[in-house]
Fold this protein.
Amino acid sequence: MDQIVIRRADAKEIDEVISIAIDTIDESTGWQIKAEQLNKEHLNKALRDIINNESVVLCAFDDQKLAGFVIFGPSGRSIFTEERTGFIYDLYVMPNYRGRGIAQRLIADCYKLTEEMGFKTIALNVFSKNKPARKLYEKLGFKEYTVVLRKDI
């Protein structure tokens, strides 16, 4: 296996991560949202707002080549308990690097950040049709907590 190094992204790398996150929205959502449906400017701003709000972008590199990334940070407070939770906003591994344990390593680093930030839980959203991602998260111990139902009108 290549020597994969995980570290915090610098400003230039954050720009690349945001670009990839936007460009791969079809795949990340299990093709439930198509790239042509996006307001890319709005999504770009939303991701930057998340990153600028105590969040961390971790990147996995093979030499200088980006192999994957995770955007992690605090979520809002629970309306039930007022607890804050660590939240994985986006996780992506480049297709030619899949199956090498990179996603698991990125998530393991999120567990460490969860503890460092004083959170007791970590959460994420996964689109229902993104079966590979859901399978990975369940393998890592994530359990279904809420279900959002949607109807187009």
Summary: Residues 4-139 form a domain with the Aminopeptidase fold (CATH 3.40.630.30). The longest strand covers residues 65-74.
